[in-house]
Specification:
Elements lengths: L7 E7 L2 H17 L4 E11 L6 H29 L9 E8 L2 H12 L5 E6 L4 H7 L2 H8 L4 E5 L3
Parallel strand pairs: 1-2, 1-4, 2-3, 4-5
Length: 158
């Protein structure tokens, strides 16, 4: 258990309902079956562009970050709408973390700082293969290699 009060702490990392819906469902199902006190956190990360130190490029990054933040607000609203189906059945918290960098390290830093003894991270995967995986990377694989807690990866529906 993660804390002195013996709560089993689960974080489900989400990026959108489309790609994280099954992971959300799995996390809520698991929480509903636990026979012990739990804490379920739905975590959405907003990964912003880092300043590059070049005047024109930095202005583009700032403009892009404005778009990223606007899209994040829409995504969080969709997540709220999706998760309402669990109201009254499972207790949960929705949190958003915003930082510069890639999603994996942003979530890792947040977890290390806020939930150092996390019991379980649940995340979805887009299941990219080949060149697409090489170019885009895999956030779920990042979690497996960098977090000290167990990680459950839930595949997207085929």
């Amino acid at each position: 258990m993660s804390s002195a009060d013996s709560e089993y702490t689960i974080v489900v990392a989400v990026d959108s309902v489309r790609t994280s819906g099954r992971a959300i469902n799995h996390a809520f199902y698991l929480a509903s079956k636990l026979g012990t006190p739990y804490r379920l956190i739905v975590l959405h990360a907003v990964a912003l562009n880092r300043p590059q130190g070049l005047p024109y490029i930095d202005n583009l990054d700032k403009a892009s970050n404005i778009d990223i933040k606007a899209q994040a607000k829409q995504t969080v609203a969709q997540i709220h709408d999706y998760i309402r189906r669990f109201d009254g059945k499972v207790d949960y918290e929705i949190k958003t973390v915003e930082a510069q960098g890639n999603v994996g390290p942003v979530i890792e830093a947040y977890i290390v700082e806020n939930y150092p003894r996390l019991d379980l991270l649940i995340t979805g995967t887009r299941n990219h293969q080949g060149l697409k995986k090489l170019m885009l990377g895999s956030t779920s694989e990042y979690f497996v290699h960098h977090l000290s807690c167990p990680v459950t990866i839930v595949k997207e529906a085929e």
